[in-house]
Amino acid sequence: MLITGKEMLEVAKENDFAVPAFNAGSGQLLTAAMEACAETNSPFLMAIHPDELKFLRDSFVSQVLYEANHTKIPVAIHLDHGASYEQVIHAIQLGFTSVMIDSSHLSFEENIEIAKKVVKTAHSVGVSVESELGTIGDTGNTVEGGVSEVIYTDPAKAQEFVERTGIDSLAIAVGTAHGIYPKDVKPKLRLDILEEINKDVDIPLVLHGGSSNPDEEISRSVNLGISKINISSDIKISFTEKLREKLNDGNLEAREPNVIFPECIEEAKKTAIHKIKLFKSDNKANLYYK
Ligand SMILES: [Zn+2]
């Protein structure tokens, strides 16, 4: 069942759980995410970053649309970190039901200006918009990128940003980073900032860079009002670790993707299911049936 990002997140906010946004990366990861969510009866957003879209080609979106239209579980197709108005228009034309415009590196006023423009266009065709205030950190090894120094979202500015832009969900920076933290880096999550933002802002809040943060911290962020959590690195690592093992198992004859990949998909799926339960989105698909 294909739905919009707004429909997806409003139910999550009302019912105190977070919807996972899994990055596609490859067709195998789409399979892993679809199966994990179907088995746990969890809604989800298939997130596709512009770099992933370039690699996967536009036709990949038709595959996701087909899958979404042939499953009972609620699915939204989401553009992850759209970098420009043009990228957003491209995604809307392909059939995305949710887009993120990320101009968080610009000034507050410029960030508002571009988000407003995206909202005006996207809403005119029923597509939901996520935008970001503050900046997510970057560990240097992801497609999502970010900045090396996290700028925490200013709670005093959050509601003003939401009101002036008309966005449907807000990505906040509370100290997470994209990718996996180096061993010597301890992420400093400021859940007090999240709490404060949640008091003032009435639209769903989004947590990026949710990979490799301790489970306990993620659970607390869900309890404190996060309605969507992006997961990219964690499922890719599970997939790739198994792939490395398969390619090094001594069988030099192995070449068929349908022989090599199924176990890798299985590992990515296990990780996805772990996240789904952590976010409390399992068995929530029925909340979307009217
Ligand atoms: Zn992100």
Give a structural overview.
- This protein is 47% helix and 16% strand.
- With 290 residues, the protein is an alpha/beta fold.
- The chain has an eight-stranded parallel beta barrel, surrounded by ten helices. Strands 6-8 form a two-stranded parallel sheet.
- Strand 3 (75-82), helix 5 and strand 4 form a beta-alpha-beta unit.
- Helix 2 (27-40) crosses helix 11 (257-278), helix 5 runs parallel beside helix 6 (108-124) and helix 7 (155-165) crosses helix 8.
- The longest helix is centred in the last third of the chain and has 22 residues, at 257-278.
- It is globular.
- The two termini are 12 Å apart.
- The mean pLDDT is 93.
- The protein binds zinc ion.
- Zinc ion binds next to loops.
Write the layout of secondary structure elements.
Elements (H helix, E strand, L loop, with lengths): L4 H10 L4 E5 L3 H14 L3 E5 L1 H7 L2 H11 L5 E8 L2 H10 L3 E4 L6 H17 L3 E6 L3 E2 L16 H11 L3 E4 L4 E2 L12 H10 L4 E3 L7 H9 L2 E6 L1 H15 L9 H22 L12
Parallel strand pairs: 1-2, 1-10, 2-3, 3-4, 4-5, 5-7, 6-8, 7-9, 9-10
Helix pairs in contact: 2-11, 5-6, 7-8, 10-11
